[in-house]
Each structure stands twice: as C-alpha cells, then as structure tokens.
Amino acid sequence: MLPALGVLAALAAVAPVLTPYLTDLLLKVMILSIFALSLQLIVGITGLVSLGHAAFYGIGAYVTVLASGDGGGSIATLLPLAMGGAAAYALFVGLLGLRTRGIYFIMVTLAFAQMAYFVFHDTGIGGGSDGIYLYVRPALGAIDLENRRTLYFVVLGALAFTYGLLALIRRSRFGAALAGIRVNEQRMRAAGFNTYLYKLAAFVIGGALAGLAGFLVASRDGVVNPEMLSWHTSGDVLLMIILGGLGSLRGAVIGAVAFTLLRELLSTHALVGPLADHWQLTLGLAIIAFVALLPKGLIGLMDRLSPQSAKGGA
C-alpha cells in the first residue's frame, strides 16, 4: 500500500502547478483507473471475464445527467443514484448471467450491454445517438465540480477510495473466497461456499464502482453519449487490465495509464507523423507486442526489475 499512498500524495502535491492540458490528462487517467479497478475485481480477482462492463459505466453517466435536469443537482444525490443505478443493472445482469460459465457468460454480458446501448441509442431517453449535455455540474456546499481544481481532488479522492476498498476486499475473508473461486470453483462449493452469491456480490460491487467512474466522467466532460456503453469501451477497459496485469490492483492503474498514454502519443501528428491518422492500427499492434512479450503485464515487468515489490500483491 505504501507505493500507492506515495503516488496519491504526489498527484495531490503537483495539482497547483499542472497546466490545463495535464490536468485534463490526469483526470482522464484517474477516471479510467477507477473504471479499470472496477473490472479487475470481476475479471482479475474473481475470474469472471466480462465483455459488457461499459454498460455500468455508461448507466452511471446517464443517470448523473438525467437526474441533474436543467438546474443541476447535489453530489449527495447524484452520486448514490449513479452508483445505485449501475449496481441495480449489474444485479439484474448477474442474476441471469452468472448461471452460465465461460464463453456463454462473456456473450451474456455482451448481450446485456448492447441491449442497454441500444436503449439509449435508439430511443429519446438519453437524446438518441447524439447523447445529452450536463448543463450544470454537480455541487455540494463548497465542493463545486464546475471548478477544475476541485474536480481534480474529488476524482483523486474517488481513486483513493476505490483502490483502498478493493485492497481491503482482497485481504478479507470475502476476497479470499473470490480468489478461491477463481482458482477452483468446484472445490469452493465442496467446501460449503455459495459461490453464486459470492460472484454476484463481486459483480454488483464492480458495477457500482464502474457507475462511480461514469458519474465522474459525466461531471468532467459535461456530455454523455451511447458510445460509452458500446462493446468497444468494454474492450478498451479489458485491454487495460490485461496490459497492466490481471489480478493486480496496481496493474489495473498502470494499465489505464499505459493505455491512455499510448493512445495520446500514437494519435499525435507531431510525434508519429502520418501514422497518427491510423492510431487505432498502431495502438493495436503495440498492445499485441506488449501482451506477447509481457504475458504477466507491465506489473510483471516491474516485479522482475524490483523483486522486493513482488511481495506486495496489491
């Protein structure tokens, strides 16, 4: 936990000297880190591969905007609604989807995510394919998310909360049960554990944390659109945790940082020239190279370079 606390302290310390561009970039990285951590609980810790996690992220964002109306709303109201809405849909998907396994579970999560996508894309609920705008960002007393610096510290606090919560879960009896389910679910059932309920709880917590990321991205951008719920977004966040290292909380954050920076660098004409027009291709090739050369992700490389850090586990 000490390296994580050091990173959080450094992010807080540099806030006053950041340029607007760097502030926005770090906001993006931190929100995606929360999103990646929420999926790491489901995939890396519990062993449930989901290709529909973007649904909870998008629902959290849409609930934030829809509940705000034209006059804005309070963080104390909108944040629980966003996380609760995402968790409720995760509960619905989990109740049905967790009765399947393997590729069938992957396809069920994808199907439910696409269903949510088309609800917002093809109806007037969320403005159709154009999406909807958040005219007044949430506030709570002196905490006004219209202020970029305030938003920065709120997102940083949310990242610290998410990381700390998942670290506590991993060290708890609940986390040990999830790890056991990932390794051998049949043995856990034989030991008397109701693995269905454990997986459902993890799935709902992961959905709620994705809803938190959705609330924050809506507050940052002031606009949401159906693409947030698409399978491309689910694929991106899955790539983040694979790139960083499955099963590691630090890996989820490192993967989000690496994925974001790679996309920024490879889409910048000043750095890669005409290749910037085809950044999706170069990004794909770069990720394939990383995965082929680093099967344990970037966190595996860091642990090899610093053997003492491998014992941290988070």
TrEMBL record:
It is a multi-pass membrane protein. This is Branched-chain amino acid ABC transporter permease. Its main location: membrane. The chain crosses the membrane at residues 75-96, 103-120, 150-169, 196-217, 237-262, 283-302. It is found in: Cell membrane. The keyword Membrane applies. Keywords: Cell membrane, Membrane, Transmembrane, Transmembrane helix. The keyword Transmembrane applies.
